[in-house]
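Structure tokens please, single chain.
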Amino acid sequence: MSISTYPPGNKLIGNFIAAGACGFAFDVVGEPNMVIKVSRLVDYGGVNPITISDFNANKSSYGDMVFAGAIGLNEFQAILFSQLYDMQKKGEETTPHLPKVYAFSSGEMQQSMLDEITRSYEFYNWSSSNYQTIVSNFHTRIGTQPGTRIGLWIMERVERAGQYQKAVGDSLNARTQVVALNKWLREHNYVVRDSVNAGNWGFRKGTDEIVWFDPGVSPWPIKPEWEDDENIQLRNMYYLFKEGYGGGEIAKYKRKLENPTEYDEGWHQAEDNE
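Here you go.
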């Protein structure tokens, strides 16, 4: 099938690429060098006015998901990619080790988006289990029940993105280049995890420049006292970090960041036990 052949009626969603923790990536119709990612975020709490729900109090509502921490990782990644989009749109310098972001949006899942995903599934006949996961976890507004809150961004496609597409020596190359990524993120108030995972990075087209297209990040600092804060946004930040990173990780990252140079040179993985 030609890469230029897309489901009739679709303006955005092309073929299925991959599924992660509560997020899905697709080709972009008519743009072979771009990828669109759709991720589930913290649910809305109401629609009149529209509000964000209390994540910790409503964790059971994410029961179909792999783990509640995935919502935290998605929420934090969406914050980063929104910032990247804004910076790049303004012509501000970012890091070459994160993708170029061509569009970003967040809001309620719309029926038109679900229809495009369904047409993609029917046209390309991709995994029925992935399709059923999308159908069961993304919905539109029903009466006063808000639709699933999602983050959606279009970014550059990188080469050899798959975990098993890496050549001998690629990890050593990534180990060298991750230092610049760590430094840029730290200077822009983020910490990172999962940068080791070979399924989270690839190569900018035609170069040996490594791009982390699926970084596990969190805004920083996260403060323990936010656990009981009256501000729901701060409280959510605390519990999203706790679910996504682990309860003891605040102290670990605080300790690591006492030496910025040593932190920048680290190879930060989710299972670190430092």
